[in-house]
Specification:
The chain is an alpha+beta fold and 694 residues long. 16% of the residues lie in helices and 41% in strands. The protein contains 10 helices and 34 strands. Strands 16-17-18-19-20-21-22-24-25-26-27-30-31-32-33-34 form a 16-stranded antiparallel β-barrel. A 3-stranded mixed sheet has the order 6-9-8, covered by helices on one side. Strands 10-12-11 form a 3-stranded mixed sheet, with helices on one face. A hairpin with a 4-residue loop joins strand 17 (394-405) and strand 18. It starts with 7 loop residues before the first strand and ends with a strand.
Length: 694
C-alpha cells in the first residue's frame, strides 16, 4: 500500500559521552542498548491517519501516549507537546540511545525541548514490544550527514557509519526497532559521540538521514595517579591513535591493556576514569592502592577466633617485603606468606586486604595461627652391640626443642644421642635474625661438652649464620671446631676398638678439625609430608697440620602426595665424603630413621650411601593413623674404604632392605610411632619413636 508523509518529521534526542568512573566488572565504555516505545510508531500512525481530520488523530495519539506512559498527557494539535513528570535516567558509564520524537517540520515551537527530554527518559525504561513497533515505513534513501545536515568533511567516517548499518538500506521498509538498532550500531563503531536519525519527505519518497557528530582527533594525553605504571607503556599504548579520530572501542582496548598490566603483576591498580577534553586531549585517571597499614592478628588453632599470640608482632613484620606506602602487590603478598611459613613457628598464614576508609589506600591484616612452640622427640631400641655396662644394650636419641624462645623465633635444641660406639650431647641456640641487621642474617651457637663416661666424646663449639635466599629457600653458613676422641669405661683414652679397628684418623687419642659448613634448605608449605630438599656440605680446614682435611656432601629430599584419604610419602637421601676423616664420622646405615628392620648402623657404614623410603599412611580411628612402609639402603661398596673397615670387621652386609607396618598417634609431643619391621635377613624388630623421621 502507498505511504505518504504530510510534512511530518522525526528527530531524536542524542546522548553524548559523559565523563565516567567505571566499576568492574562492567567494561569501560560499555554500550547500553535501549529499546523504547517511542514516537516512530506515532509516525506510522500519522501516515495512516494524515488524510483524516486532526482531532481524531490527536485523540488517538493522546490515548496511545497515556497507555504508553501511564500518566496524564496533554496533546496540543498545533505543537504536539507532551507534559508529565520526568523519569530517572539510567546512569551507565556510556549510554547511547536514539529516542525518536514527533515534530512538525515547518518551524521550531515551544515545548520541543520538553518533549525530547521526556521521550529520552522514557526510552531508557524496559518495555515489551507493541504491535505498532512492528509496523513498517518505506524508506527511499539513506544518507549520513553531520549534525547540521551537511556532508561530512571526512569521507572515511561516512563510510564507517554506512558500513555499520544493517537494516537501513534504500528502498527498504523499516520498523522503529530496526532504525534504533542501526543508530546503536553507528555509535558502537566507536567513531561518533551522537547520532540523530531524521526522516525527510521528498519527491521520491521518505529519506532517512543519520546526523552524526564524530569524536575529536587525538592530540595529547594527560595521565594522573600512575606512580608504578611505566610512562613508556602508556605512550606505546596510545601512539597508534595520535592524530586520528578517537575510537571508543580502541580506547576500551587500551584501558583493558593497562588494567592487564596491573593484573599480571598482582598490583592493586586500575584505570578509574577517562575524559576527552577540548582540543582532543584524553585525560586518564589511574587509581593505585597504596599500603596504609599492616597489622598482625593471631587466631586460635581450634576455634579460629582472635587470640593473644606468643610471637612478637615485630618478629613477623620484619620478615615482610611489603611496606607501608608501596602499591600493594598480591604476588609480593604471597611471597611474604611463604616467607613467614618458613619461619617454622606458624601453622597457617594469610593476608586480607581491606579499604582504609575513603583514603583510596588499603590496610593489610595478616592472620596467623601459631604452632606449638616446644616439644620432645625420642627414639630407640635394644642392641646386642659391643659395649658393656648397665646401659650396654640401649641405643637411641632424646631431644627437646623450643622454636620460639622469647617470642622472637629464636630456637633452642638440647639433644642426647647414644649409639653402639658413641654418645653425643648437644646444646644449640639459634637467633634466626640478628637484631639490627637488614640482611636477615641468623646466628647459631652450639656447645657439645665432653663426657669421659661415654665411649666417644666430643667437644664442639661454633657459630652459624642463616638467611632466606628466595621464597621457600634458606641458606646457612657456619664455622665449627670439634675435638673428639674415644675412651674406655674407666675414662682412659683408646685408639682402637675391640676389632682392632682405629677409632681416630690421626692415630692419636684425639682428632681435631675446623669445619666450614654450607647448607641450603627448600621447604614447601611447612607441613610434614610436603616437599622438602636439603643440601649440606662440610669442608675440613687444615689450619694446623694435625687438623683433618676432608670434604663431606649430604642431600635429602622428600615428596608427599595425597591419594584420596591416604598419603604417599617418598624420601631419598645420599652422601659422599673424601679426604681424611674419623671412622666414627662415616655414614651409618640402618635403624629407626634409616632402614627399619635393622639395628642402628647395622646395614653398614661407608664413605658413600643412599637410602630410599616409601610410606603410605591412612586414617584409622580419631588421632590414630595406620602406616605401611618399605626402606632400602646401601653403602655403594664404600665400606672397606673407611679407615679400619669397621663395617667389614663387624660383618655388616653393606646393603639391605626392610618393610613393615605400624601405627601413629598424634600427641602434644608430636606423633608417637610404633612400627614392626622385617628385614631381608628374616629378622623382625620393633621400632618406637616420638616425632617425625628425619
Amino acid at each position: 500500500m502507498p505511504f505518504r508523509n504530510d510534512d511530518v518529521r522525526f528527530i531524536s534526542s542524542p546522548l553524548k559521552i559523559p565523563p565516567f568512573r567505571p566499576q568492574p566488572p562492567v567494561p569501560f565504555f560499555a554500550q547500553t542498548l535501549t529499546k523504547s516505545k517511542n514516537s516512530l510508531s506515532h509516525l506510522i500512525y500519522s501516515l495512516n491517519e494524515s488524510t483524516r481530520s486532526t482531532e481524531p488523530f490527536t485523540r488517538k495519539l493522546q490515548s496511545f501516549a497515556e497507555h504508553l506512559y501511564g500518566k496524564s498527557v496533554r496533546i496540543c494539535s498545533t505543537c504536539l507537546s507532551m507534559t508529565g513528570a520526568a523519569d530517572t535516567l539510567v546512569n551507565f558509564p556510556l549510554l547511547c540511545s536514539a529516542s525518536l520524537s514527533l515534530n512538525q517540520s515547518s518551524a521550531e515551537f515551544p515545548g520541543q525541548s520538553e518533549l525530547s527530554t521526556q521521550l529520552q527518559q522514557k526510552a531508557q525504561q524496559p518495555h515489551s514490544v507493541s504491535r505498532s513497533d512492528e509496523e513498517r515505513v518505506l524508506i527511499s534513501e539513506v544518507l549520513v550527514r553531520n549534525k547540521d545536515g551537511e556532508e561530512l568533511e571526512r569521507k572515511d567516517l561516512e563510510t564507517e557509519a554506512l558500513t555499520a548499518l544493517k537494516a537501513c538500506r534504500a528502498n527498504s521498509a523499516l520498523t522503529v526497532r530496526e532504525v534504533q538498532e542501526d543508530v546503536h550500531r553507528i555509535i558502537d563503531s566507536g567513531y561518533f559521540c551522537s547520532c540523530m536519525p531524521v526522516a525527510v519527505d521528498t519527491r521520491d519518497g521518505i529519506r532517512l538521514v543519520f546526523q552524526v557528530e564524530p569524536n575529536q582527533e587525538f592530540h595529547g594525553l594527560v595521565c594522573e595517579g600512575a606512580n608504578v605504571l611505566p610512562t613508556k607503556f602508556v605512550e606505546d599504548a596510545f601512539r597508534d591513535g595520535y592524530g586520528k579520530v578517537v575510537n571508543i572501542r580502541r580506547l576500551d582496548e587500551v584501558i583493558t591493556s593497562i588494567n592487564g598490566w596491573y593484573m599480571e603483576r598482582g598490583l592493586f591498580g586500575m584505570v578509574s576514569g577517562v575524559e576527552i577534553l577540548s582540543g582532543g586531549i584524553i585525560r586518564l585517571q589511574v587509581a593505585e592502592a597504596e599500603v596504609n597499614n599492616i597489622s598482625i592478628r593471631f587466631l586460635d588453632r581450634k576455634t579460629g577466633e582472635p587470640t593473644k599470640g606468643k610471637t612478637r608482632p615485630e618478629t613477623i613484620l620484619r620478615q615482610l617485603t611489603t611496606k607501608k606506602g608501596q602499591v600493594y602487590s598480591m604476588l609480593q603478598g604471597k611471597r611474604d606468606v611463604e616467607t613467614v611459613l618458613t619461619m617454622g613457628i606458624m601453622e597457617d598464614v594469610s593476608i586480607i586486604p581491606q579499604p582504609a576508609g575513603d583514603t583510596g589506600k588499603v590496610d593489610l591484616i595478616m592472620n596467623v595461627v601459631e604452632r606449638p612452640s616446644g616439644g620432645f622427640s625420642a627414639g630407640g631400641g635394644i642392641s646386642s652391640g659391643i659395649t658393656s655396662g648397665p646401659l650396654s644394650g640401649l641405643i637411641g636419641s632424646f631431644a627437646y626443642s623450643h622454636r620460639n624462645v622469647f617470642g622472637r623465633n629464636q630456637k633452642l635444641n638440647i639433644s642426647l644421642e647414644r649409639g653402639q660406639i658413641d654418645s653425643i650431647f648437644r646444646i644449640n641456640y639459634t637467633d634466626p635474625w640478628i637484631e639490627g641487621d637488614d640482611k636477615r642474617t641468623s646466628r647459631t651457637i652450639m656447645v657439645q661438652p665432653d663426657n669421659s663416661s661415654l665411649t666417644i666424646g666430643r667437644v664442639t663449639a661454633g657459630m652459624e649464620f642463616s638467611r632466606p635466599i628466595r621464597p621457600k629457600w634458606s641458606g646457612t653458613v657456619g664455622l665449627i671446631f670439634q675435638h673428639s676422641g674415644a675412651h674406655d669405661e674407666k675414662g682412659n683414652p683408646i685408639i682402637k676398638d675391640f676389632y682392632s679397628s682405629p677409632l681416630t684418623a690421626s692415630g692419636k687419642t684425639n682428632d681435631e678439625m675446623l669445619i666450614a659448613k654450607f647448607e641450603s634448605v627448600y621447604t614447601g608449605s611447612g607441613d610434614q609430608g610436603s616437599s622438602m630438599f636439603v643440601f649440606n656440605m662440610e669442608q675440613g680446614l687444615p689450619v694446623l697440620p694435625e687438623w683433618l682435611f676432608f670434604n663431606r656432601v649430604n642431600a635429602r629430599a622428600r615428596k608427599g602426595v595425597e591419594i584420596g584419604p591416604a598419603r604417599l610419602l617418598l624420601s631419598l637421601s645420599g652422601g659422599h665424603v673424601v679426604g681424611n676423616f674419623s671412622p666414627h664420622e662415616a655414614f651409618a646405615i640402618g635403624g629407626t630413621n634409616s632402614v627399619r628392620g635393622y639395628e642402628e648402623g647395622a646395614v653398614g657404614s661407608g664413605r658413600s650411601y643412599v637410602v630410599g623410603s616409601g610410606e603410605i599412611s591412612f586414617p584409622m580411628l580419631g588421632p590414630v593413623e595406620g602406616v605401611i612402609f618399605s626402606d632400602y639402603g646401601t653403602d655403594l661398596g664404600s665400606g672397606p674404604s673407611v679407615p679400619g673397615d669397621p663395617a667389614g670387621a663387624r660383618l655388616k652386609p653393606g646393603s639391605g632392605y626392610g618393610y613393615g607396618f605400624g601405627i601413629r598417634v598424634d600427641s602434644p609431643l608430636g606423633p608417637l610411632r610404633l612400627e614392626y619391621a622385617f628385614n631381608d635377613k628374616q629378622a623382625k624388630r620393633f621400632h618406637f619413636g616420638v616425632g617425625y623421621r628425619n
